[in-house]
Amino acid sequence: MSPGRRPRKNASAMRMLGKQLSAARHAAGYTQRTLSEHDEVPVDEETIASMEQGRRLLKPDLAEIFDRVLDCKGTLSAGVDNLPEVDQFPLFAEKFMEQEQEAITMSLYANQVFPGLLQSEPYARSVFRSRVPGYTPEKIESLTTARIERHKVLHGEEPPEVSYVIWEPVFHLALSGGRTQHREQLLHVRACMDLTNVTVQVLLLESTEHAGLNGPFVLMETPEHQHVAYTETQRGSLWVSDPNEVSILASKYAMLRSQALTPKQSRVWLDGLLGEA
């Protein structure tokens, strides 16, 4: 195990802790949605559901918040502190953001919005404002701050190698910020293109081939050289660790790279779009 890297947690123990969280929530009179809307709670109802099902890890900071909000008197924090550890990577076990912090390589295909690490602060804020049902202003700011904090991943001493293939419509989506914010976001992506550890390729609308029609996905390589994938839908997310399924997505990504503009062509293309913006 890499120095300083946190061990993985036992999946069955996580499910038990999730049941405790669910029981405490019911006892306090909250639904998953109303709990997510509490001013002190920085996560959405889908994340709460995932933690209660044992698919996402309840972190110490969240356990402290839930202990306070649900009047658990430290029970959840004690449960987190005593989760048994395992060395293997458990399916559905941890949040995407934790894996993002540890990955040594990442490959992402995006066809809806710019990936989180490429989002400027105003753009990220607009993404969260677009959510239905809507977040409170306080939660929007909390989530935006957390997303921008993640940008440190690209600028560390040993940053991961990150490859993006982004479908052209994403570059034209201005969200709610108008022309000025749209240009700021495009300039932010253009600056990321110059990072030595980041590769961005544009898949044009005029392309007659498209290997990513089933939707966006992320491929990751862990420090132990394990290959995993992550996909999202309207109402949830899915970790993929089965080697055969990961291999299929890796093949899709390789095909997408061959169908997209080269990194150099993509920089020239974006320079042209900025000239028109």
Task: Summarize the entry for a quick read.
46% of the residues lie in helices and 14% in strands. It is an alpha/beta fold.
Structural notes for this entry:
Helix content is 46%, strand content 14%. The chain is α/β, with parallel strands linked by helices and 277 residues long. The chain is globular, with a radius of gyration of 20 Å.
Task: Draw up the topology in text.
Blueprint: E1 8-9, H1 11-27, H2 32-36, H3 45-52, H4 60-69, H5 75-81, E2 85-86, H6 96-102, E3 105-110, H7 121-129, H8 137-149, E4 161-167, H9 168-172, H10 178-193, E5 198-203, E6 217-221, E7 227-233, E8 236-240, H11 243-259, H12 263-276
Parallel strand pairs: 3-4, 4-5
Antiparallel strand pairs: 1-2, 3-6, 6-7, 7-8
From the structure above, extract its key features:
globular, two-stranded antiparallel ribbon, disordered N terminus, 12 helices, 277 residues, six-stranded mixed β-sheet, single chain, 8 strands, 46% helix, alpha/beta
The helix tally amounts to: 12
Roughly what is the average pLDDT, rounded to an integer?
A: 86
Taken in chain order, the helices and strands follow as EHHHHHEHEHHEHHEEEEHH
Helical percentage: 40-55%
> Separation of termini?
48 Å
What strand order characterises the main sheet?
A: 5-4-3-6-7-8
For the biggest sheet, the summary is: 6 strands, mixed
Q: Give unreliable regions as ranges.
A: 1-9, 86-94
Oligomeric nature of the chains: single chain
Helix/strand/pairing class, anyone?
alpha/beta
Q: How many β-strand stretches? A: 8
Radius of gyration: 20 Å
Shape: globular
Strand content: 5-15%
